[in-house]
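Hi V.,

You were right to ask for the full record rather than a summary. Here it is.
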Amino acid sequence: MVRFFYAFFLSFAMVARLSARVNGAGPTGALAALALAAAGWRVQLFDPIPRQRLLEVQRAYAFTHSSRRFLQRLGLWEALAPHLSGFAQLHLVDGALGREVGFRSSDLGPLAAAANPGAQHLTSPAAVGWIGSHGPLMALLLERLEANPAIAVVLGGKAGPPAPPGQGAGFDLVVAADGADSPTRREQGIGQWHHSYAQACLTVQVGLRGAATDQAWEILRPEGPFAVLPMGVGRHQLVWSAPVWRCRKLESLSDTAFLDALAGALPELLQPEVLFDRPRSFPVALQLARRLHRGSTVLVGDSAHRCHPVGGQGLNLGWRDVQALMDLAEKASAGRLAPHRLGAAYGRRRWPDVLLTLALTDLLVRLFSNRQPLLLPLRALALVGLRHSAALRRLALGPMTLGPWPLPFRFSVPGAGNPGGMPALSPPGEPW
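Predicted structure:
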């Protein structure tokens, strides 16, 4: 009887549309606002950065199948696909050993097809992944946001006083999507683990001779990973990880000197010809919030976690946060989940994926960014196994492009009695 009256009260309360505030209008925050509106919520999207500055960010992203299927769900993929460059091959190279292994979309097996029923009509459905620039993505997101009557977009203004810890200031949900140095996370008193790598990451777009337009490279060099990503005919995005001092030196070189240095770092097949922009470097760190929610506030994207750029996992991991949030928001709209329980449910759902992805990227960097004699035979054995076993290639590629859920097992989350908090894997302190 008590359960009946609780369910009746909950369904009655759902007649009043639930409301959310999203702090941060970058790609992850903008997508969160669209996802919550699609789930039946009223949404306010806030960012102190003006609209034009949001569009002017110079950056490229790697999109995996997990992001593609979510964009399809929101009706965004077909509009974005013409602005993306798909790659059907990914070459993984061990720079110290001089060995490589190639991955193709067929190595995903039925996993990609299961994630993408009816995708035959889309651009490059057989791709391993896609590369796209920030500008077209952000323009599409802002266009859809401004056309949605359930979303109020507030850009370039002041946020007003912060809500007390755990409170939503009149909203049923507050979503922190305001970056790695999230003001919302700090206001909620949520700490984080932080590990700075002894590397920086340098990005630049170049023209390469000898590079196929449908082929990406991940070169695991002793000084750090080096990604070569196709951006269309005659243009490639480079993501070059190296010691901080080396990245600073590379930034200061003339165009000719930089191209010479670049030629020495790339495989002989790839010959740099022209720079399309100036190299820019940024520090690389691993960050993880100690909680993914507090009260009615949840953390998504860089506000919750950051990982090394190897494998292009950052944006895709954040968008899987948003997908999980949308699933729970739909349940709340339908009266199957009390809004005040949404944050805890989100935390429990996201920990396995976040921990696995951060662990995998960190392991790749630690295993391959060195010349340790004891590790070289292990790396050689791993590459031989990958070259000769489709099952191993699928096992390696699946979690990186589809998330951990296609794996033949599900993770149970230790510490489930600590809703929204990190599973009790280690005492407080720096775990890496």
